[in-house]
Design goal:
Length: 155
């Protein structure tokens, strides 16, 4: 495996990814390393396809449905005013969604990428990360539409 997303997925398989929250049918839910936007979550595709249109139609629709359900759980867990969604792939082509919970008072009037990278690199303690993971895990387990998609959740 190559690339940061693929190495993070390998860490999930080895039980060594500290940001792992849940495995779904088409991807993995992880919290972002940096929490400048509290609750920042990624949904990492299980497919090695680099573009949505490369997925077979059924798999593409399922991946998009699961991403939307994960976003709903982020909304429920972290109570933002708005969610920002991005599927980029310029830095790492492995398909992965960025889901940013936004708040009216987060200090950024435009896209999160308007912030310098150094300002995005806000880390939290291990204890805070565990608490964020548990909040998102509870929202995932309590989402009746997502339940049939769950393969595994973190402890």
């Amino acid at each position: 495996m190559s690339g940061i997303i693929q190495s993070r997925i390998e860490q999930i398989h080895q039980g060594k990814n500290p940001y792992f929250v849940a495995e779904l049918m088409t991807g993995y839910v992880v919290l972002g390393d940096h929490q400048r936007f509290v609750g920042y979550t990624l949904f990492l595709s299980k497919s090695e396809a680099t573009e949505l249109h490369e997925l077979p139609t059924h798999q593409r629709l399922l991946f998009l449905e699961e991403m939307a359900l994960v976003a709903e759980c982020v909304w429920q867990a972290f109570s933002p005013n708005k969610l920002n969604y991005e599927l980029l792939g310029n830095g790492d082509p492995h398909m992965h969604w960025h889901i940013f919970p936004r708040r009216d008072d987060d200090g950024v009037t435009g896209p999160v990428w308007w912030l310098p990278y150094t300002e995005m690199k806000v880390t939290v303690s291990d204890e805070e990360m565990r608490a964020l993971k548990q909040k998102l895990k509870r929202a995932i387990l309590n989402n009746s539409a997502l339940k049939p998609h769950i393969v595994k959740v973190c402890e």
